[in-house]
Amino acid sequence: MKLSRFLGAALAVLLALAAGCSLIQRGEQSSPHKLIEAYLEAFRNGDFEQMIFLSGGWEGSPEELDFYRKVVEMIELKSYTIEEVEVINKNEAFVRVTLTLSLLGQEKTKTDNLRVLRKEGKWYLAEEILD
């Protein structure tokens, strides 16, 4: 009897861990707010590949990608605030953000609405943040 309880408890722990791991893996894309936060942290940390991933991949030419990478490397994200999330429907939302950017010693603060789309249960940025 004790062995079956132990095995049952061990199985429950393994299932909980497996469920937790799947939630952690998709956590940054589980909501519009978390997506934008992950994207902006990737921007702040210079993680260009993560930025592209959270945008759903790159569809332009390799030359355009290289140009965009160099632009991103030149800009420093000083601060950001996620102001509001406006859910349009279950697959589309707008996230209002205020960014303070620095380029060649010049700072600029701007507020923008970023469109995000949900595909196959994950949220992706639908537009370039530096437009």
Distance from first to last alpha carbon: 65 Å
Q: Whole-number radius of gyration?
A: 19 Å
Per the principal axes of the C-alpha atoms, what is the gross shape?
globular
Strand residue percentage: 25-35%
Strand order of the largest sheet: 1-2-3-4
Kindly report the average pLDDT value.
Answer: 83
Element-by-element helix/strand order: HHHHEEEE
Helix fraction bin: 40-55%
* Major sheet size, sense and barrel closure: 4 strands, antiparallel
The CATH topology corresponds to Nuclear Transport Factor 2, Chain: A
Summary of the model, kept short:
The chain is built from four helices and four strands; from the N terminus they run H-H-H-H-E-E-E-E. It is of the alpha+beta class. It has a single domain, classed as NTF2-like, domain 1 (Nuclear Transport Factor 2, Chain: A), CATH 3.10.450.100.
Overview of this structure, please?
The chain has 131 residues and is of the alpha+beta class. The protein has one domain (29-125): Roll (Nuclear Transport Factor 2, Chain: A). Helices cover 44% and strands 34% of the residues. It is built from four helices and four strands. The chain has helices at residues 2-26, 32-44, 48-54, 62-74, and strands spanning 75-89, 92-103, 106-119, 122-125. It has a four-stranded antiparallel sheet with strand order 1-2-3-4. Strand 1 and strand 2 (92-103) form a beta hairpin. Helix 2 runs antiparallel to helix 3. The radius of gyration is 19 Å and the shape is globular. Mean pLDDT is 83; it is low at 1-25.
